Amino acid sequence: MEAVSHEPLVATRSCCADRIGLARLTKLAVSGADLRPLWHTLITKLIDGTAEAGEGLDLSLIAQLLGDKPAGLAIQEQILASHQLFRSPCAVKNPRLRVLALAAATDMGSNTPIEFLLEESGIELMTLYVIPGVDLPAPLPDHDIAIVIASDSEDCRDALRQIDHAASRWPRPLLNPPRLVGHLDRDKLHRLLSGIEGLEIPATTGVAREQLLSVSRSAAVFGDIASDLAFPVIVRPRGSHAGAGLAKLDDAAAIARYLGERQEQEFFIARFVDYSGEDGLFRKCRIVFVDGRPYACHMAIADRWDIWYLNAEMSASADKRCEEETFMRTFDIGFARRHAKALAGIAERIGLDYFTIDCAENEDGDLLIFEADNTAIVHNMDPPDIFPYKAPQMRKVFDAFAAMLCRRARQDRERAA
Fold it and tell me: Alpha carbon 34 to chain centroid distance?
């Protein structure tokens, strides 16, 4: 049994490795910049042993942005073996606050992309990677407030456990505590949110490949998995992200075909909910919660149920953008007011200081929840000439996040005084 210390942790100045960072590199990639020259420069330095730790971590990100995730993770593992603390670019020389983000050694999509939230805030961001088998630094890097940015994915679980063991002794406020992050997995979220007035969330159940094979032979097996399952169903590999392997299966033959094309052994299954509007279009919204308050992040509109923002082709339709702009501008008096009880219930039960939900409205007008996450990307990278309404809305979100950090840190100082 692991011994648990009850001595309070302390913090002091530590050596941070400076980096270009996720936000700047992602923006370069999205804008169409060629990252390969920078890749060649940094990989040459890594090979000849002259790369700084921050350059190595940037190289890992560039590899992933160029589509080579295995190489990126291998480089990251090499860098994190000797250095775990990194500093992102700050907009000012004398930051008004120091934030310590607690990350897991995982791919670029499985930690909260917090750089986008703080990029122009005048707040210093340090990221500490919590590595299996490596103790937290003693003393900790000096900071005013900390936040857990690791997700509930399998490769983050060890990091979450390690942070949780130290949480009660943390010397500063610790936001998004790991025990609450652990409730966001798809099969747990239904149990957490079930029963909230005005909210629908289909039960998501983990199933083994053999169980799905049995369903492909007889739909009666659905009853052994979950009481409300019937065709059509939504299936995805366990641990998948961004729609990878996601499919709507209408009958037993479709399940057989699906399994014939996939090698995974574990899946999630849920009943399909038709959330199309009277015009036949589907609308999926991303809502971000900051300190319990919801903010509009985006609305994707498409003629397909499996929407995410990139495949909705919002930039090609002025009508869609007009509807999204209206959704954003009227959010507080429209969408948020219609679903006030459901949104308040979500904020209370999830309990995190910062998280997002992807949702829609069902045919009865209730809030339909697809997922909740602490690592979904919230950004301001859309072209302002096409989406002029987005920058003001995202600034509201970024300002609310920074204000929450400053408020919590100030309250902690006042209590200490």
Answer: 26
Instruction: Identify whether the C-beta of residue 295 lies closer than 8 Å to the C-beta of residue 401.
Output: no
pLDDT band at 147 (very low <50, low <70, confident <90, very high): very high
CA-wise closest residue to 271 among 303, 243, 235 = 235
List Cα–Cα distances, 207 to 183, 194, 222, 254, 267, in angstroms: 19, 20, 11, 16, 5
53-62, 213-222, 262-271, 401-410 — which is least confidently predicted? Answer: 213-222
Task: Give the β-pairing of 199-200 and 11-12.
Answer: unpaired
Going by C-alpha positions, the residue among 6, 346, 351, 5 that lies closest to residue 177 is 351
Top-confidence residue, 83 or 244: 83
Are the beta carbons of 54 and 125 closer than 8 angstroms? no
Distance CA 249, CA 347 (A): 32
**CB of 9 closer than 8 Å to CB of 169:** yes
The stretches of 339-416 forming alpha helices (DSSP H) are 340-350, 390-416
- Distances in Å between the Cα of 12 and the Cα atoms of 125, 141, 235 are 15, 5, 48
- Which one is predicted more confidently, 120 or 216? 120
Task: Return the C-alpha torsion angle 321, 323, 327, 333, nearest 10.
Answer: 150
Model confidence at 227: pLDDT above 80: no
pTM of the model: 0.93
Asked if residue 284 lies in contact with residue 360, where contact means CB atoms within 8 angstroms, the answer is yes
